[in-house]
């Protein structure tokens, strides 16, 4: 079910908080509907994908946006100067040292599909890293909150596995 | 009648289409690869235009595209390399790529250059059906190029019929809605291929994505006219010192 209805979200068994978009506009949308508060208070498993994951951090450099603050991390833009890599990163990259329930039966160094210009740095809630010029958090986990920078729905069998792992948490 | 249509008139089963990225493994490998594929048994060739932001490719083809771009491959260089293609190549050649580089080059210019080089058809997975119908289809037709669409197991029958009516040459049946190069249980795909076969479409069907060896090729061909192999061939020539012998060895392992 795709919804922004607070009641339906509150009563869901699992919540996926998807991405694609721009941080400040998305946060405005959430605040207008008072979903910013609601998401933070959810007790069921919540999975943020891409921008969804980034909005679960404290702050995003994308239009200097205050985010939900679930993960104590700042979201930064890839710097063009870091290497010859193009921005945004679009395509497959390795998921290094994945741990925790999302990654049950997912081996090390599996490829997932990314589309992003901003990244969450490494922190205590990092449960998988990826290198793109620099290492960044490709997955986060804290309590009932999970986040992935890549798109599991675009990541073939590995992505399917991660989604089904999330559904069986 | 196009070379592709002629091929399928002559051969209705076990047609082998091999994909390789242009400018891979080395910038000037393109013609060597095409010639070797023809000489050792490929029925048609799908030449990939390397692109930095792959949409329907798996990690292996993505890496080959990155390497080709580092080698200096461009659309312009590709057409330069294909000059004289038809002096040695008789089998059909298709170009597969994404809209961005094609639009940068100019869509009509691209069709004109492709036709001029002796290319037979094009595959652009991110060109939507509507845009093809209303704008670009007329141009591919003008230059006598076949245009091949993709269908997936999730494509409804009605839309498959519409896509079939717009396609010429063949239909590319993606064996899963995910991306290239992943291991797929071909037996599970058979239901889908059989469904396509029963639809009696006007174009022949080639199965693609996930076909890597003789068993998967044979399984895919059971209900289709043939299959496309990409990632497995890319891997076979990745570190090759001798593209001809690596290609011969690879095609022998599929065909014999």
Strand order of the largest sheet of chain A: 1-2-11-10-9
Regarding quaternary structure, what we see is: heterodimer
Distance between the termini of chain B: 31 Å
Structural class of chain A: alpha/beta
Count of separate DSSP helical elements of chain B: 13
Output the CATH class name of chain A.
Alpha Beta
* SSE pattern of chain B: HEHEHHHEHHEHEEHEHEHEHH
| Rough outline of chain B | globular
List its traits.
heterodimer, A: 169 residues, alpha/beta, Rossmann fold, 5-stranded mixed β-sheet, 4-stranded mixed β-sheet, 5 helices, B: alpha/beta, TIM Barrel, 9-stranded parallel β-sheet, 14% strand
Condensed summary:
The complex is a heterodimer of chains A (169) and B (256). By secondary structure, chain A is of the alpha/beta class.
Structure description:
The complex is a heterodimer of chains A (169) and B (256). With 169 residues, chain A is an alpha/beta fold. Chain A has one domain: Class I glutamine amidotransferase (GATase) domain (Rossmann fold, 3-Layer(aba) Sandwich), CATH 3.40.50.880. Helices cover 24% and strands 34% of the residues of chain A. Chain A is built from five helices and eleven strands. Chain A has helices at residues 6-11, 23-32, 35-41, 51-55, 156-167; strands at 15-17, 46-49, 57-60, 65-66, 71-77, 89-95, 110-116, 118-120, 126-132, 134-142, 145-148. In chain A, strands 1-2-11-10-9 form a five-stranded mixed beta sheet. In chain A, a hairpin with a 4-residue loop joins β3 and β4 (65-66). The two termini of chain A are 19 Å apart. Chain B is an alpha/beta fold and 256 residues long. Chain B has one domain: Alpha-Beta Barrel (TIM Barrel). Chain B has helices at residues 3-10, 30-39, 59-71, 75-81, 85-88, 99-105, 107-117, 129-142, 157-166, 186-198, 214-221, 231-237, 243-255; strands at residues 15-21, 44-48, 93-96, 121-123, 146-147, 150-151, 171-174, 205-208, 226-229. A nine-stranded parallel beta sheet of chain B has the order 5-4-3-2-1-9-8-7-6. In chain B, α10 links the parallel β7 and β8. In chain B, α2 runs parallel beside α13. Chain B is globular, with a radius of gyration of 17 Å. The two termini of chain B are 31 Å apart. The interface between A and B is small, with 11 and 12 residues.
